[in-house]
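chain below, 243 aa
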Amino acid sequence: MLPDDVSLYVEPISSDVGISLGAAYFCQILSGGLEKSERLPQLYLGRKVEYDYDLLPGEEEIEVTPDDVAKLISEQNIVAICQGRSESGPRALGNRSILFDPRNPDGKDIVNRVKRRESFRPFAGTVLLDHVKDWFDLACLGESPNMMYTVDVLHPEKIPAITHVDNSCRVQTLRREQNKNYYDLISSFYKLTGVPILFNTSFNLAGDTIVETMEDALKTLRKSEIEYLFLPELNKLIYVPNH
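prediction:
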């Protein structure tokens, strides 16, 4: 644990994919144009999804609201979400994510099986910022918008699907201005269940890169057990029957 008077910021793209960011920072420092490192306001910097797609026989496109999708998730359906620009860095933050009910005690096993990844790997949660202190111990962090920190879970029995064996969780906090559509979906889930959190993992299967395009998204559904794809910018739900 950090000392109580320390608030740590971890640059969210500190890896090979962040080389261009580091180079830009370095050039600004050399030129005297940057006195200190500034935090990135958001990480939705990737490719913007284009909604040009064709469905196969038996697949459906349905008009939905966030309440409809929240109900689907509360009924233990895995729902993928695809919108806007993809996330830069290592974390899915609600634009290319697979979502599930964090209350399900078998949630880790269910989604690990569907994603075809190792059973020991934990999952993250996205929580509405206004409620984070009721569910997680952020110490001095204040918020964790880029899902870069692992913190203690205050009520592990209520959200077992995203609670690791040591009662910790890698958490993303969310303000509405950061991602309106994702925030509204979690708000609907909160109204329905009393839990202001969604289980969140990257939209891909083991061995695949994270989804970028609608072609990627539909291909992932068609070769997995995931049946629902939420397109919040269109208020559409794609249903791909896989059972």
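Residues 135 and 155 are 6 Å apart (CA to CA). Residues 180-193 form the longest helix (14 residues).
thats it, cya
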